[in-house]
Amino acid sequence: MEVKSVEDYMERIRVIDALEQQAMGLSRMLTTYTDRLQERLEQRMAIEQGSEAVVLRSIKHLEAAVTKSVQQKQSLIQKCHQLDGEMQEVQVVSSRLQEIKQLLDVLEYSTRKD
Q1: Helix or strand or coil: residue 1?
Q2: Which DSSP string do the residues of 17-78 spell out, in sequence order?
Q3: Mean pLDDT rounded to a whole number for the chain
Q4: pTM, two decimal places
């Protein structure tokens, strides 16, 4: 009986050693997979940070372009108001010129009659 229990004991030790080897192999595989996953996550983070930086720069450039466009439109509106005011003076002068022309026509007509 003792021989059988020593043999059983030795068999159990071999099984435990085999299980331990399998566990060590699985642990190494898990470590490898975890390291690869971490590398990929770090790469993904770097890509996303780069993308975010590009988006932020694009937004800032767009904001600057929109701001410049709004300022130019406001300047154009002010210029239009200024020209509108100046055109009123031109219209007054034009009206006076028409009156003068009519007077000259009347004068010319009256000088021809005489």
Answers
A1: coil
A2: HHHHHHHHHHHHHHHHHHHHHHHHHHHHHHHHHHHHHHHHHHHHHHHHHHHHHHHHHHHHHH
A3: 90
A4: 0.49
